[in-house]
Each structure stands twice: as structure tokens, then as C-alpha cells.
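Sample intake sheet
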Amino acid sequence: MNATKTFLHVEDDPNDTEFLEAAIKQFSGKINLRSVRDGVFAKQYMQGHGKYADRGLYPLPDVILLDLKMPRLDGFEFLAWLRTQSPIDQRLIPVVVMSSSAILEDVQRAYSLGANSYLVKPVDASKFHECVNTVAAYWTTHARTPEIRHPGIR
């Protein structure tokens, strides 16, 4: 599979966003990375509201990389919305939680809400890069993701 995959990164920490963007740029696969800073913007992105209405610029993601601890609408709330209230097709999009929390209750809650994977973000920059590279390789090369139709396009 050589097709470009779109990843939506939902993260409120600009440093983590910058580290992830740098790691993705060095990844040899084809990834269209889109980033938003919290669950409210992620929900708007998924709904195609406001500036996210242009699906040419903001295509529905093949994979969502989701932080948990964010202001306004946190990762748990976004994940619950995605799995129960978003359009049916969008509920199938794989979600990889990338959190600094290793608390067992957070892990269990994320999986119970429908996360496909839970990763604790490494503090060390090289380990973080390695983690992102592994996630990117898995979701672009090895795993099949569902085809999600854009509303109004058949």
C-alpha cells in the first residue's frame, strides 16, 4: 500500500505537536498530517464545520492520534462523541491514544470508549521519534483502514 494516509493529530501541547510533525516529516511513508489543538476543533474538523469545510484541504482522516488531557473537550469526551454520535462511517476510524498518562484507569477508559491503541508518550525525544515511526509504519504499511465517505460524495 503506497497511498497517502491522512492522520489527524489532536493535541493541545505545541511542543508535542512540533515533535510529532518533525518525526512524521522524517518518516519514509506518505502521510498527510493535520493537527488541531483540542477536542472541540477535532469535532469541528470531523463535521467539516467552519474552516474545515474544505475537504480538499481537510480530508477525513484514516487515523486519529488523540491526546487525552486537553481543555474544553478532552480526549475521552471526543472519543465518546466519535464512537456514538458522529456519522456511522466515521465511527470506524482507528484512534490511537497518545497520552503522557500511564494511569491504568485512563488506559481502561480509553479502550472502553473505543480506542484502537493506547501509547504512553515517551519523554525522551529519540524514543518519541521511534514511537511515532512505529505507529506511522503500522498504519500506513501494514494495517488496512476503512474507507470513509465524505458526506455528499457517493
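Comment: Strands lie at 5-10, 31-36, 63-66, 95-99, 117-120. DSSP finds five helices and five strands in the chain.
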